[in-house]
Write a structure and sequence with these properties.
By secondary structure, the protein is α/β, with parallel strands linked by helices. It folds into two domains: 130 residues, Urease, subunit C, domain 1 (Roll), CATH 2.30.40.10; 315 residues, TIM Barrel, CATH 3.20.20. Strands 1, 2, 3, 4, 5, 13, 14 and 15 form an eight-stranded mixed β-sheet that branches. The radius of gyration is 23 Å and the shape is globular. The N terminus is likely disordered.
Length: 503
């Protein structure tokens, strides 16, 4: 890559997406609900200039906070509405189209083009103004941000153990190109693949590499496998401790893929900052879904250490619902995905992942659906019970969805997060816990709280206008009145994939 290209890429990564068409804006008579406040601030006026909140007045304040700009501004009447911070999904994957391989995308360029244009809008449709891609690169981020309307997006570098998870699912030698921040442990890999220099893949070197590329976090992995795979290599404890030390020196938080009792214990011992999954693999052959003493011991450490914890229950539905006979006809799906893509998912080609997961050819779809629902009942039950236990003990939740968790069409953008909120309520979280997890807690955990996460003077104007208080009901997010992205006011109806058909 030439010097001019590098300079352009650096500028692209530094400027938050969605910053175009920002406008001066005045929101009047609104109730502010923000996670740093114990109570709503009612009948407030919020003034936005050049994409940031510059003044808040009214309500209980006797004087305006901040200085209001002079000159004309667009106005919104917030009477009867609630102004809240835009939501943050701290666990997404944006490089591929859900359910479509690279080869299939090349075969269907028109479908793929429509999908890539719509996916950013679908996250916004459900109020997600900030996304964190946990395994990405500068080049992939530049492609994602090339659309006209995109949530503010940041990325982690994926520090996977060479040939371990998730690299094992990628063909060689492509895997070494897609995972440039892979880790090589001394003495563990006597023969290096062509083009891979062990000296530049130590924990210290990969952290320096991703930091220079603009990553804001590090994602690493402890996964022995699932399905028919159980012998994947996993990192040594001293390796991940060295990674954490290097990352913290660079002011980068470390997230770990860990969904088993063994993996979460490893992550706690390694002192990572965030466990990037819920606990549904209990390393227990029984069918119990009640929290066992061994699992309780892990969860108690999660509470005690205040480690960040993403429940990501929708991961499990992302596989189970591949077998649903009604999923593709759900009207909600038409709001977030182009009709051409939904139709393709229904074809034999589009069902490739379902067919590869099935043990035998599917001759009776209803029977296959019932079998899959039964098969996932224990792991879903365990995920809910573990999440509920942590909710009761006030663990440090971070809202993340792992959208999509695999090359599955059953984790659709935006809608997947809406369904995850309902999963969390079912598991025992309150709407207030979800609100904080998706705003200030996420912002603090990822060192973004100087810019986002609350409704305060100086913060970036990533905001939502809602018809109800989201600390009382998550249904508020299902009826968003307006989305404000860097000061740009957006009607959610205009973001829907079927917008043209609903007018």
């Amino acid at each position: 890559m030439g010097g001019a290209a590098v300079a352009w890429l650096a500028v692209t990564l530094a400027v938050p997406s969605g910053s175009v068409s920002a406008q001066d804006l005045r929101i009047e008579h609104v109730a502010i609900v923000s996670p740093e406040r114990a109570q709503p601030r009612r009948d407030a006026t919020v003034i936005i200039h050049e994409g940031r909140i510059v003044a808040i007045s009214g309500g209980s304040a006797t004087r305006p906070s901040g200085a209001a700009p002079s000159g004309p501004a667009s106005q919104l009447d917030g009477k009867g509405l609630y102004l809240v911070p835009g939501l943050i999904d701290s666990h997404v994957h944006l490089n591929e189209i859900p359910g479509m391989t690279d080869e299939q995308e090349k075969l269907h360029p028109d479908i793929a083009r429509a999908a890539r244009e719509q996916i950013p809008r679908s996250f916004l449709y459900f109020g997600f103004t900030t996304l964190i891609d946990l395994i990405s690169t500068p080049e992939a981020m530049a492609r994602w941000k090339s659309h006209d309307l995109v949530p503010d997006t940041y990325f982690c570098g994926g520090a996977a153990l060479i040939d371990g998870y998730p690299m094992n699912y990628m063909p060689t030698p492509v895997r070494y190109e897609r995972m440039p921040y892979l880790i090589v442990e001394p003495g563990a890999h006597p023969g290096m693949p062509p083009g891979v220099d062990a000296a530049v893949h130590s924990p210290q070197a990969v952290v320096a590499h991703m930091k220079s590329d603009g990553a804001i976090c590090v994602k690493t992995f402890f996964e022995r496998g699932f399905g028919g795979v159980h012998d994947l290599p996993v990192p040594r404890l001293e390796t991940i401790r060295a990674l954490v030390t290097a990352a913290h020196a660079a002011r980068l938080p470390v997230l770990m893929h860990a969904n088993s009792a063994e993996a979460q214990t490893f992550g706690l011992d390694a002192r990572v900052d965030i466990l990037a999954h819920g606990l549904w693999n209990w390393n227990d052959p029984s069918a119990t879904i009640e929290v066992t003493p061994a699992v309780r011991a892990v969860l108690d450490r999660v509470v005690e250490t205040k480690i960040g914890w993403q429940a990501t229950i929708q991961v499990l539905f992302g596989v189970r619902d591949l077998f649903s006979t009604s999923f593709l006809s759900d009207p909600a799906l038409a709001r977030v995905l182009p009709s051409s893509l939904i139709a393709w998912y229904g074809t034999k080609e589009g069902q490739w992942l379902r067919d590869s997961v099935a043990d035998t050819p599917i001759t009776d779809p209803k029977a296959a659906e019932a079998q899959m629902n039964s098969g996932f009942a224990v792991v879903i039950g365990r995920a809910e019970k573990a999440t509920g236990y942590l909710a009761k003990h006030h663990a440090h939740f971070l809202f993340g969805t792992d959208t999509p968790s695999a090359p599955t069409f059953a984790n659709p953008p935006g809608l997947n997060a809406w369904r995850e909120m309902h999963n969390l309520v079912d598991a025992g979280l309150t709407p207030a816990q979800i609100f904080e997890a998706a705003t200030l807690s996420n912002a603090r955990a990822l060192h973004l709280d100087r810019d986002i996460g609350t409704v305060e003077v100086g913060k970036r104007a990533n905001l939502l206008l809602l018809p109800a208080d989201p600390t009382k009901t998550i249904e508020a997010y299902g009826r968003i009145d307006k989305i404000i992205l860097g000061g740009r006011v957006i009607d959610p109806g205009e973001l829907a994939a079927d917008h043209a058909h609903s007018e």
